[in-house]
Amino acid sequence: MLNKLIAAGLLAGLVVGLLAAATGNTALHMIAQGSAPFGQVFINGIRMIVIPLVVTIIFASVARLGDLRALGRLGGRTLGFYALTLIPAILIGMCSMQLGLRFVPELTLPEQGAVTVPQLRGLSEFFVGLLPANIFATAAKGAILPLIVFTALFAAAAGTLEKTRRERMVQAAEDISAALIKLIWWILYLAPIGVFGLIAPATAKMGWGVIQSLSMFLICVILGLAVFVSLVYLPLMALRARINPLKFFKGLSGAITIAFSTTSTATAIPVTRQEVIENFGVSEKEADLIVPLGASLYRPGSALFQAAAIVFLAHIYGVPLAIGMAGAIVLTVFLVSLTVAPVPSSGVVTMAPALESIGVPVAGLALILGVDRIPDMFRSSVNVIGQAITAVLAPPDSEAYDRNFD
User: Fold this and answer.
1) Alpha-carbon span 360 to 98, nearest angstrom
2) What tens digit of pLDDT does each residue of 48-57 get?
């Protein structure tokens, strides 16, 4: 229902803005411009909550693992698989959108679209900046990468504590995350009005070009997801796991259907667990670790979507992305994709710090938020596929290696 209301807010904003641009009607322009404060309030709400949410989710996810050495080969192979497949997803997302930009029309931005491009730092300065001297000053500046690095290191240290202390800290982080997620729900309830307040004045300036741009963005994301599955997952299924891809999709059809319809991999956990055990020879012990961990951390579809969205919004707002900035974008999206919360459009919301770090206005998220339901269905399906493949490939002695589905 919420997605429908957000889409309605987007549609209303587009209609009012397009009519104002086409007719020059003074009343419509006044409505469009008068709604702008509602959009700013909505964006402020997102910016207020996203950093503490990212920090608490990362802390709980990493600290919950305990001592990583205790996980042995299984934990190492699982986390290594996440890293090796997330990077291609990010690069494919950036490249697919970069190719699609040639079909995106030039847009005349409203005045608030003016941005200041941050000065590109050298490689050594970039890595030095990942370890901040003052974490509180870093948080006040909204610098997401140093916060994530600090949180991950702190959580890893917490994971080595005795079980009672570790569980207390993890429980506290999860409780804080739950409260923040509740707050995000409240903010999202205001999204229809906020999206209208962001889209209407922007569309009044941009005209029909905004619809053409959004259509091309959706096409690039969906095609990028298809390319990622074809180039990364299908070869892994056929060559590494020796599983016929058609039978793999058939064996995982229940989980994919649930993820596609609900846009939630967490909702699909029970079915994903059952299908990888019954259809792909994964043991219950391995499935109980890998499937929930993947639903918490591993979202290659979201990473591809976020990378494409950053390239798209940077183009819309005229922010040049130098080659030297590509590495920072890959690392930022890699880390931010690990923090997607189980709420609608969280993959959009958590992009806010990444956008600010390269000088793209957070208000640009409204362009994507209203149409996010469509790519969310596809990226959630890809996320579930990736989580199932991890369960098949990560266990070093899984029966799946000895089963031939051809």
Assistant:
1) 16
2) 776 787 778 7
Read off the pLDDT of residues 338-351 as tens digits, 9 standing for 90 and up: 666 555 566 776 77
Instruction: Tell me the two tokens of residue 338.
Output: 């690990």
Q: Which pLDDT tens digit goes with each residue over 166-200? A: 889 989 988 998 888 788 778 777 778 887 887 77
Q: Which of 148-152, 211-215, 341-345, 377-381 is predicted with the least confidence, judged by mean pLDDT?
A: 341-345
Which CATH number goes with the domain that contains 336?
1.10.3860
Can you say whether residue 322 is alpha, beta or left, with left for phi > 0 and alpha for psi between -120 and 50 degrees? Answer: beta
In this structure, which amino acid lies at residue 244?
A: N
Number of domains composing the chain: 1
**CB neighbour list of residue 125: distance below 8 Å, 6 or more residues apart:** none
Structure tokens at 193: 């009005």
Amino acid occupying residue 43: I
C-alpha 389/C-alpha 403 separation (Å) is 14
Residue 111's CB is within 10 A of a number of other CB atoms, namely 7
Q: DSSP letter string over 292-337?
A: HHHHHH--HHHHHHHHHHHHHHHHHTT----HHHHHHHHHHHHHHG
List Cβ neighbours of 286 (8 Å cut-off, separation of 6 or more): 74, 391, 394, 395, 398
State the pLDDT confidence band at 403, using cuts at 50, 70 and 90: very low
Residue 102: count other Cβ atoms within 10 Å of its Cβ.
Answer: 7
Which run of H or E residues covers position 271? helix 269-280
H helical segments located in 64-162 = 72-100, 123-129, 135-141, 144-159
> Above 50 in pLDDT, residue 113?
no
Which residues, other chains included, contact 22 with Cβ-Cβ below 8 Å and sequence gap of 6+?
A: 207
97 to 102, 290, 304, 311, 325: CA distances (angstroms)? 9, 31, 10, 7, 16
Task: Report, as an integer, the average pLDDT of 372-384.
Answer: 84
205-232: buried (b, 16+ CB within 10 Å) or exposed (e) per residue? bbbebbeebbebbbebbbbbbebbbeeb
Residue 359 clears pLDDT 60, i.e. is over it: yes
What's the whole-number mean pLDDT along residues 111-132?
Answer: 52
Evaluate whether 302 touches 337 at the Cβ level (below 8 Å).
yes
Q: For residue range 77-103, list pLDDT tens digits in order.
A: 777 788 889 999 999 999 999 999 888
Cβ-proximal residues to 107 (8 Å cutoff; 6+ apart), any chain: 206, 209, 210, 213, 316
CB 62 within 8 A of CB 152: yes
Domain extent at residue 385:
2-402
